[in-house]
Sequence to fold (448 residues):
Amino acid sequence: MRKGWMFLVAGLLVMALLFAGCAQQQEKPAATPTPTPEKTAPEEKKEAQVETLYFGAPISLTGKFSKEGQMSLWGMQVAAKWINEVHGGLKVGDKVYKVEIKYYDDQSNKEVVQSIIERLAVQDGVKFVLAPYSSGLTLAAAPIAEKYGVLMNSHGGASDYIFEQGYYYVVQTLSPASKYQTGFLDMVKAIDPEAKRVAMVYEDTEFSRSVFSAAKKHAEELGFEVVFDKTYPKGVQDLSPILNELKATNPDIIIGGGHFADGQLLVSQLADLKINVKAISILVAPALPKFYDALGTRAERIAAPAQWEVGVKYSPEAAEKLGVDYFGPTQDEFMQMFKEISGSDEPPSYHAAEAAAAVLSYAYAIEKAQSLDPDKVREAMNDIEFMCLYGLWKIDPETGKQVGHEMVIIQWQGGTKKIIWPPEAANAEPYYPIPTWEEKAQGKLAVK
Fold:
């Protein structure tokens, strides 16, 4: 009996030991694992997703504004190239967006522009639009962009009227029309206080009317007498009747023009009629190299307001002095990329620089907003101020009108465009008074 009891106790002890061993084995998975050294299994970094972000654009590749339109497209493509290849794309959250310009030829036609804006918004799903060239086309596009709630950035529509209609989704990159000819008048007044008589002859378009309405008011405030103030129709082929009227008023200075074709015609016929004055400033046309190619020495001494010009000193260093960010390619980088995109040695006009600036302003605002929602990006645009190769960018929050950027005045001197005003931006002195048409016909250039 006692021996049986001992066997029973021994058995119970064996079973207890076996149970304890099993319990210990079952507890092992709950134990904290031994940490793996980082060098053998580094923490994985989540790679950013790369997607395409389209900026849509109606571009005048044919029709009246084809020269300006082509320059604008090249400028947009340069900005996109810099964003994608140098900046590394747009970083929004955990995604990176490569920018692509989706464009259609608007044929310099209002109805085509409106259909393109609708197509971009509805069919293509584009949220950010670059406006067409010219105030007339931009004015036609604005209500369509507003209707569909897509942001539209004006790089070629300067008329103040566009931004007085209460549009929320329309913002401006270039200086408004009201600023175009005021700098030239300031320059003449500073150089020659005795100059009094101003003649104005310009294209009957929304843009030109805005420019010259403001110029007339400014001229009178400076003490000038406006002795001639008339328009000519779009597509005009002969300006001699209106120019003969102008000649009879004996002006000291002439300001005029509208776009490239009529500006070139205006200067050509001023030469034919030998209308000699102390200074001439023409809109748009003289800013393009083709102006001098077409007119030769007749282009000497002709001035023009410009949104931008090669040689203007906007740089990261200049931005730092002003306490603002610099965003985008430097001027040298822009020039090199422009040559690659355009495939030619033709230098960029201000149309290219302002179009590039419009693309850069979208990119800068999108990264600040950290959103692709047009409303949030528009809200971010109210608060941003930065510099790019084109100059300062800052809008009035209420109207979307550009208030940061300043115009410069250029003049053809010895076959080269020179920046002559304002003094802090100039790389040459103004040639004043200008040579007569007879002197230029004999080969005299506007050089001293």
Q: What stands out?
A: Residues 127 and 150 are 5 Å apart (CA to CA). The first strand starts at residue 49 and ends at 59. The two ends are 136 Å apart (CA to CA).
